[in-house]
Amino acid sequence: VAQNVLDKHCSPFARAAAVLASPAGEAKWNSRTAHPVPHTNTYYFKCMIAGVLSCGLTHSLITPLDVVKCNMQTNPQKYNKGLVGGLKMLAAEEGSSAIWKGVIPTGIGYSMQGFCKFGFYEIFKDLY
After folding, report:
1. Alpha carbon distance 97, 70 (integer Å)
2. Contact 87, 68 (CB under 8 A)
3. pLDDT digits (tens, 9 = 90+) for 65-95
4. What pLDDT is stored for residue 39 in this prediction?
5. Are 48 and 124 in contact (CB under 8 A)?
6. Fewest C-beta atoms under 10 Å: which of 24, 28, 56, 110?
7. Which helix (H) or strand (E) holds 8?
């Protein structure tokens, strides 16, 4: 296989075709290096951290909406002014920290989910 075909800047399809066309033992397909960005342990770790940030942060920031929704479902006579009205009523009655009930378990749980989903997806994609 010509070295320029196995170069990083070549498309993955060109590299795969070159490996398949080469005599046995000359070049071996490696899914971890077949991408423009090599899939090293650092890459997998970055994917895991991206999962923590994307899932953990977004779900944590939505927690106040979930708290109001749950209050609207359990006490519809009291929380009947919609989402914004429910946020205002909850903050006025229980304090502004009440809208953040459950943010820590939500953040931890969804961070772990994002860590596994984003990181392990990349690992298993290269293994299988």
Report:
1. 16
2. yes
3. 999 999 999 999 999 999 999 999 999 999 9
4. 81
5. no
6. 24
7. none
Cα distances (Å, whole numbers) of residue 57 to 66, 68, 111, 112: 14, 19, 8, 12
E strands in the chain: none
- The pLDDT tens digits of the residues spanning 7-44 come to 555 555 565 566 556 666 555 667 777 777 778 889 89
Are the C-beta atoms of 68 and 90 separated by less than 8 Å?
Answer: yes
Nearest-5° angle of CA 118, CA 119, CA 120? 100
Longest alpha-carbon distance in the chain: 76
